[in-house]
Design a protein that fits this description.
alpha/beta; Rossmann fold; FAD/NAD(P)-binding domain; 4 domains; five-stranded parallel beta sheet; globular; binds iron/sulfur cluster
């Protein structure tokens, strides 16, 4: 006998977030009229302890076998409600969430009647889909407890050490012959003026002496295949290939400093970059009498719209270093806007002024002009050009994406942003993760960061990576693609080519070439199911029947609409 479907619907006020703009009591009354609904409850906050307890109690007392919550976004609350259903004794995948806040009350704040009618449609569709939900079991896959860190700068070394100190075996892959990255080119690290070379050396010694870290320098990554818990990496060092497996990967590939070729008469001698100035400091070769620094060179323009964030503080740090070495040297910083965020940086900005560093704002439309022995800049307040004598011009150029980012993003199947920096999974919810499970990012690979920020992110990425590493078995959501009709599959490989997560492969079977799903790599995005002209694939909990039922429910006229 077919199972009797008994749906409980919980409609949330979300305080005034929903109840302030929609008629929630009317929604609850409406839900009672829908097919298979046997229980309806309006909650002030469904996610509160009392709301959660009400769901658990209703599942037991009302013998519910499907639960629908009409509230906020599944992005933040679906796991909580699934867990609640499980605690109430219901398979957690017999739960459906309807978003009547972000997709309804918040966007129809001035339209109470229309918003309420739309919320009824959404609830009707959710209930219709819930009737067809089937129990699912989480998918398990073994976890290789080893990690790879790509990049041997401060972020990569910090991340590798953090993972190794937790007991995990780490392979650190660096393309240069030496560990240290950009730190090797810096003089001091602000705001505490630590010696950059010593910091790099200390970290490199710890990495190279750590029994859990294998360091591969002068090494290129040739291939990365697989998925969380089971990546296979191929590297080559001096032409010798090596293959190894890891469970997680941290991307810490760093960034490069833009070389301002063709800008402000840059010549690497009298017109140099901040990095080249630091190298003069390191060699003890700095001896200028009049220095002019120009900010935002090659940044915040049409070609490169972003602010590199760190260049203002680098200029201020180096201006202070000049004044402390040689108080009589004149230093002007020509800027468009000064980024001196945080208490310490603001203090350094003020300190630089006290030392006599002069800050002059310039207009992007009237940039400074660099000529032999002088820099001309238009002064806003005076309303005329100023001529500054100069024997050294220092250009503050932005950090730009690493030259290998595109190759590595292809190997890992992860995204880059418009400036070719690596793109995080979600700017707020997954800032150190990629959209693909088991791959994490930190430091300048993500966006220009100070050394302190890079270290914090590296520790964060290592913590994120430790979560799966600490498990013997990976458990993933069963909302994944499934080959429902092996006979229908023609093995054409179209879905394999389009899957953004590398979760499909073609295998040879007795019936010929067929697609195979790697469930642990699948994110349930649905691209394959939508692509397959043979309808051979479907997504668990988003089957054609379930979506069709939702559409039919939408097309039905509601009781009052
Ligand atoms: Fe082609 Fe469909 Fe088979 Fe994929 S599932 S290989 S698209 S027939
Ligand atoms: Fe790949 Fe998306 Fe299909 Fe999963 S649902 S196999 S991630 S295309």
């Amino acid at each position: 006998m077919a199972e009797e479907i008994r749906i409980g619907v919980f409609v949330c006020d979300c305080g005034s977030n929903i109840a302030g703009y929609l008629k929630v009591s009317e929604l609850a009354e409406y839900a009672k009229t829908l097919p298979n609904v046997v229980y309806v409850k309006e909650n002030l906050y469904t996610c509160s302890e009392s709301g959660i307890n009400e769901i658990k109690a209703a599942v037991k007392e009302q013998d519910l076998n499907r639960v629908v919550v009409a509230s906020c976004t599944p992005r933040t609350h679906e796991p909580l409600f699934r867990e609640t259903c499980a605690e109430g004794g219901l398979n957690p995948y017999l739960f459906e969430m309807v978003n009547i806040r972000d997709q309804c009350s918040w966007v129809h704040m001035q339209e109470k009647e229309e918003g309420t009618a739309k919320a009824k449609d959404l609830i009707r569709m959710g209930v219709a889909k819930a009737s067809l939900l089937q129990p699912q079991e989480p998918i398990e896959s073994p976890m290789d407890p080893r990690a790879m860190v790509i990049g041997g700068g401060i972020s990569g070394m910090t991340s590798a050490l953090a993972l190794a100190n937790r007991g995990y075996q780490v392979t650190l892959v660096e393309k240069a012959a030496e560990l240290g990255g950009l730190l090797l080119q810096l003089d001091k690290i602000g705001p505490a003026n630590a010696d950059a070379a010593s910091v790099a050396e200390k970290h490199a010694q710890q990495v190279q002496g750590h029994p859990k870290i294998k360091t591969l320098t002068a090494t290129k990554i040739d291939a990365i295949n697989g998925y969380i818990g089971n990546f296979k990496v191929t590297t080559s060092t001096n032409g010798v290939q090596e293959e190894f497996g890891v469970g997680v990967i941290v991307v810490a590939t760093g960034a490069r400093v833009l070389k301002p070729v063709g800008l402000f008469n840059y010549d690497g001698e009298k017109v140099i970059t901040q990095l080249e100035l630091e190298s003069l400091f390191k060699k003890g070769a700095f001896n200028a009498k009049n220095v002019v620094m120009i900010q935002c060179v090659g940044a915040r323009n049409e070609e490169r719209k972003y602010c590199s964030r760190i260049c203002c503080m680098v200029a201020i740090k180096n201006a202070i270093a000049i004044k402390e070495r040689s108080p009589d040297t004149g230093v002007h910083i020509l800027y468009r806007d000064i980024q001196a965020y945080g208490t310490e940086n603001e203090e350094l900005y003020q300190y630089a002024k006290q030392l006599g560093v002069r800050f002059l704002k310039y207009d992007q439309a009237k940039p400074p002009k660099v000529e032999e022995g002088r820099v001309t800049v238009y002064h806003h307040l005076l309303g005329r050009d100023l001529e500054l004598p100069v024997d050294l011009v220092v250009l503050s150029t932005p950090l730009i994406a690493g030259e290998d980012n595109e190759t590595i993003s292809r190997l890992l199947r992860v995204s880059l942003d418009e400036n070719k920096f690596f793109l995080e999974g979600h700017v707020k919810l997954k800032p150190l993760d990629f959209a693909n499970d088991g791959i994490y990012l930190c430091g300048n690979a993500h966006y220009p960061a100070t050394v302190r920020e890079a270290i914090s992110q590296a520790l964060g990425a290592a913590s994120r990576a430790s979560i799966p590493l600490s498990r013997d078995v990976m458990t993933v959501e069963p909302i994944v693609s499934t080959l429902v009709d092996e006979d229908a599959c023609r093995g054409c490989g179209l879905c394999v080519a389009l899957c953004p997560y590398g979760a499909l492969e073609i295998v040879r079977t007795e019936k010929g070439r067929k697609v195979k799903v790697i469930p642990v790599a699948c994110k349930g995005c649905g691209v394959c199911a939508a692509t397959c002209y043979q309808h051979a694939l479907t997504i668990n909990s988003y089957t054609d029947e379930q979506i069709g039922q939702q559409i039919e429910a939408f097309l039905e006229t509601g009781t009052e609409g």
